[in-house]
């Protein structure tokens, strides 16, 4: 893998490299990245991997090669500005909804804010990073009291604490480092949105690359609720002398009325009322933004004014994009976020492969790596979603053509796995069960879950398609297997649940999406991974259904290219929770018979690790009992 990455960087040829758990793929790309002539950016999807790179893998590598004086071993971590504590906000106060600077709130919330302020001051005193990940435990609401977004930031030149600023120091360190470790979202903002966030680089390694499309989509998505417009208007009212802020408040009421006339879900054709309301919000926000007093040289920085103007600017940018009603965007009414106090409008790009191709692949050499890049036994589906054409793939042994306008040559390489999946794991499909319905788990499925967990004597990670299904299964197992400890996502924070799961083998842990990808539990703690159903997107998911329709319209098979690909990625990640070391043994049990009976089942099965397959429940229960020592 190291040689393949080195060749890709030298020949400026993009690379997709699938490397299973346990292959040491981080070293496979870190070594050639250190030896590359220019700075290399390493982008990860999860904080867990970023932490592993920075706390373990990179320091070990630097220690090993530290005696080579001719190798630049410098590295830095770079995150979005809101991930660092803001010393100005901590020392000067936080503007409230009216723009008045207030002290910390009272009660337990205030105590947490004070604790974070003291932590940040200690970080500054000791010359540390001020990163959110290193802070005492806190909620999102509390963190907002000690941080700012990029728009709210006064800027280093105007801020009294600019020289001490944690975010600025992180940028300076990155600018003088060979390796810069960041996340997919910041990479997307820098390369695709065109907002400079990362120092100059010509190559990027994207780890957990199966997540990139979702993260780029997320970074390019926007939300707008009447409450957002109203808060921006209230903040602006203290800064603007004319009626512009009042007109923005009036526009919020018009948007509320227009939203009330819509049904939840995708808005395929914008109503006249909604179009008029968005145009009104856009025009009022533009007038309000322009009405802020111009800053004069020598003026003292005003945090309340900066933040108010940033809020109006955010409303303007989102309303402008929504009002444009572009075919390349998907718009929907979302009622699932109660913190907004009502419905909100959401907007996301219909596709991102074109942006990835034009803005990232055209300018940088990109190495994509993950344990899950081959779906249905081929790189084609993932390569296409990332903006690489199957026809551009360079055959093994052939010289790649030069990258140029309209041509992005790439190679695909499967490192393989150190594990013998055929001997270490069983893939069990409960073919005898009824297909899953819309009403949640039925008695036959609950009986199967209880029987399998009883045979495994705990030691089970249950991956469910919904919180409701996970909770129903947990309730059934608690009632029928009271001698086991049954945990459900939401009972405590995920790290606490994982710790308890690892420490006691007679434990069952049930959860949803974050467990599918974010949990590493090697050893006999986990000998059974349960998957309740094939994780197709929800039929009412506005973005995924729009992408599926667009694929059908373009002549492709929308179901296979969108829904089945989405499900295959998640199933491969979920099944990957079982075998984490060469001594692990166990069963992946899928309670959805469609994996064995449907035409698309072969594509999904070919996306999973090559475990020994069976549909025999008695054989599987006997295997689990042997593993449990019963």
UniProtKB/TrEMBL annotation:
Annotated ranges, domain Helicase ATP-binding: 1-285
Catalytic activity field: ATP + H2O = ADP + phosphate + H(+)
Source species, domain of life: Bacteria
EC numbers for this chain: 5.6.2.3
Membrane-spanning parts: none
Keyword Cell membrane: no
GO BP field: nucleobase-containing compound metabolic process
A molecular-function term among this protein's GO annotations: 5'-3' DNA helicase activity
Keywords carried by this UniProt record: ATP-binding, Helicase, Hydrolase, Nucleotide-binding
Entry-linked InterPro entries: ATP-dep_Helicase_C, DinG/Rad3-like, Helic_SF1/SF2_ATP-bd_DinG/Rad3, P-loop_NTPase
Region (Disordered): 391-410
SMART domains linked to this entry: HELICc2
Family, similarity comment: Belongs to the helicase family. DinG subfamily.
Protein name: ATP-dependent helicase DinG
Species of the source: Nocardioides jejuensis
Lineage: Bacteria, Bacillati, Actinomycetota, Actinomycetes, Propionibacteriales
């Amino acid at each position: 893998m190291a040689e393949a990455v080195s060749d890709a960087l030298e020949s400026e040829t993009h690379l997709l490299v699938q490397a299973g758990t346990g292959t040491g793929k981080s070293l496979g790309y870190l070594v050639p990245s250190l030896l590359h002539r220019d700075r290399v950016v390493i982008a990860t999807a999860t904080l867990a991997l970023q932490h592993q790179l920075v706390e373990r893998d990179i320091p070990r590598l630097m220690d090993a090669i530290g005696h080579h004086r001719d190798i630049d071993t410098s590295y830095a971590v770079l995150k979005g500005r809101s991930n660092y504590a803001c010393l100005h906000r901590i020392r000067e106060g936080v503007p409230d909804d009216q723009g008045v600077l207030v002290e910390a709130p009272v009660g337990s919330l205030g105590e947490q804010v004070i604790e974070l302020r003291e932590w940040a001051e200690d970080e500054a005193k000791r010359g540390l990073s001020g990163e959110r990940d290193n802070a005492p435990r806190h909620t999102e609401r509390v963190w907002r009291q000690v941080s700012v977004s990029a728009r709210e930031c006064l800027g280093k030149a105007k801020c009294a604490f600019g020289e001490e600023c944690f975010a600025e120091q992180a940028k300076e360190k990155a600018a003088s480092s060979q390796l810069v470790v960041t996340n997919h979202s910041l990479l997307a903002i820098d390369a695709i949105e065109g907002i400079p966030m990362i120092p100059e680089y010509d190559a990027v390694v994207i780890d957990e690359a199966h997540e990139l499309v979702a993260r780029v989509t997320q970074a390019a998505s926007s939300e707008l609720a009447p409450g957002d417009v109203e808060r921006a208007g209230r903040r602006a009212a203290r800064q603007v002398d004319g009626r512009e802020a009042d007109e923005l408040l009036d526009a919020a009421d018009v948007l509320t009325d227009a939203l009330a006339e819509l049904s939840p879900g995708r808005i395929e054709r914008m109503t006249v009322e909604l179009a008029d309301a968005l145009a009104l919000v856009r025009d009022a926000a533009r007038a309000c933004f322009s009405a802020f007093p111009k800053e004069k040289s020598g003026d003292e920085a005003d945090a309340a004014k900066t933040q108010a103007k940033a809020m109006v600017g955010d409303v303007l940018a989102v309303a402008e994009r929504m009002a444009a009603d572009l075919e390349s965007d998907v718009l929907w009414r979302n009622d699932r976020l109660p913190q907004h106090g009502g419905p909100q409008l959401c907007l996301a790009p219909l596709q991102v492969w074109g942006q990835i191709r034009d803005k990232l692949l055209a300018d940088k050499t990109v190495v994509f790596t993950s344990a899950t890049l081959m779906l249905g036994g081929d790189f084609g589906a993932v390569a296409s979603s990332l903006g690489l054409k199957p026809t551009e793939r360079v055959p093994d042994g052939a010289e790649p053509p030069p990258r140029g306008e309209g041509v992005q040559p790439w190679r695909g390489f499967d490192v393989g796995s150190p594990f013998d999946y055929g001997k270490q794991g069983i893939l069990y499909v409960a073919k005898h069960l009824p297909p899953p319905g819309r009403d949640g788990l039925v008695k036959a499925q609950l009986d199967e879950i209880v029987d399998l967990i009883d045979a495994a004597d705990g030691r089970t990670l249950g991956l469910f398609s919904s919180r409701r299904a996970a909770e129903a299964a947990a309730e059934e197992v608690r009632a029928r297997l009271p001698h086991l400890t049954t945990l459900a996502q939401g009972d405590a924070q995920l790290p606490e649940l994982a710790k308890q799961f690892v420490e006691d083998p007679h434990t069952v842990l049930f959860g949803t999406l974050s467990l599918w990808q974010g949990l590493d539990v090697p050893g006999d703690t986990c000998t059974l991974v349960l998957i309740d159903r094939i994780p197709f997107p929800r039929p009412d998911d506005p973005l995924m259904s729009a992408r599926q329709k667009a694929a059908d319209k373009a002549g492709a098979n929308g179901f296979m290219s969108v829904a089945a690909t989405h499900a295959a990625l998640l199933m491969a990640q979920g099944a990957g929770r079982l075998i984490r070391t060469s001594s692990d043994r166990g069963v992946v049990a899928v309670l959805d018979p469609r994996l064995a009976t449907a035409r698309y089942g072969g594509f999904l099965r070919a996306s999973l690790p090559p475990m020994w397959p069976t549909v025999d429940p008695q054989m599987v229960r006997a295997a689990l009992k042997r593993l449990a020592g019963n």
